């Protein structure tokens, strides 16, 4: 299951952050602190039987987030920022909110991810434990898990299902939203280089598309907190863009 923490308070503007594979609420805390007093809610994975939260298709994950958001007060403006895998969940979430909460003006930020039709299949690299661990961490066990192979195995299984969910997510490269889209890449991220492939995000919206490159690596959204928070804060303050 996918949840949101904390729930959004009544407010005019807020940010929802959807982390990617291995992303945690803890990793987002510095960004959340830097954005204060702007309310921020983070998509988090909840424990569920047989790892159900990890095996859910991407559109279904977005449906769970949309249900949680619309169960409470929604702001007039919502910035939805998705990182890596989270970019696809964020795209689906913005599409759903346009249907269920049209009074909320959404802006979509996709960070460190190619458009779905441009992304090579992860299955081409294989899904064995060593390959999955290399993709996520570079091949080393996360801090504190080197001596806990059972827990590390659970995490690798979770990450493997995430990669399979990405491979299975193949929407048509057509407009799924009319929201403005901000496409953010990093100078040191070979998985989503700034170029023609990134520009193809424009095929998924009828709204305006803005591209920007940050210093850093794949996880720049959470490791280059100051410039990222500055840009997100600017998005919360700028006039709402309307699709012509």
TrEMBL record:
Pfam families on file: Thioesterase (PF00975)
Keywords: Hydrolase
Keyword flag Transmembrane helix: no
An example molecular function term from Gene Ontology annotations: hydrolase activity
Occurrences of domain Thioesterase (ranges): 15-232
InterPro entries: AB_hydrolase_fold (IPR029058), TEII (IPR012223), Thioesterase (IPR001031)
Family: Belongs to the thioesterase family.
Protein's name according to its UniProt entry: Alpha/beta fold hydrolase
Organism of derivation: Streptantibioticus silvisoli
Lineage per the UniProt record: Bacteria, Bacillati, Actinomycetota, Actinomycetes, Kitasatosporales
